[in-house]
Write a structure and sequence with these properties.
The chain is mainly β. It contains no helices and 9 strands. It has a 5-stranded mixed β-sheet with strand order 2-9-8-4-5, with no helix packed on it. Strand 4 and strand 5 (about 45-50) form a beta hairpin. The termini are far apart.
């Protein structure tokens, strides 16, 4: 069974950077178009980075992958308070079992 394990979140000041990781087990990420999603407090989960980027993160976030490590990354720069959310990885259809996510809080 496929499992997704996100990590790398935390508290960061506005303008700071974080790099999230998603280790995939039970399958090979080369089989999927992987993506990152986020769910802000009280809002629905939306995709922010995949083959395209949400307008709100374009130019600041970069998705990458290491097929050897079976890991997907999200480099987040110039973070803003509105980037505060729980971040998840999944394929672009969101059809894999969801992981726990990793909390990102942007605050001074």
């Amino acid at each position: 069974q496929v499992q997704l394990l996100e990590s790398g979140g935390g508290l960061v000041q506005p303008g700071g950077s974080l790099r999230l990781s998603c280790v995939v087990s039970g399958s090979t990420i080369s089989h999927y178009l992987m993506a990152w999603y986020r769910q802000p407090p009280g809002q629905k989960r939306d995709m922010v980075a995949g083959t395209k980027y949400a307008d709100s993160v374009k130019g600041r976030f970069t998705i990458s992958r290491d097929n050897v490590k079976n890991t997907v990354y999200l480099q987040m720069n110039s973070l803003k308070p509105e980037d505060t959310a729980v971040y998840y990885c999944n394929n672009q259809g969101g059809t894999l079992p969801w992981g726990q996510g990793t909390q990102v809080t942007v605050s001074s």
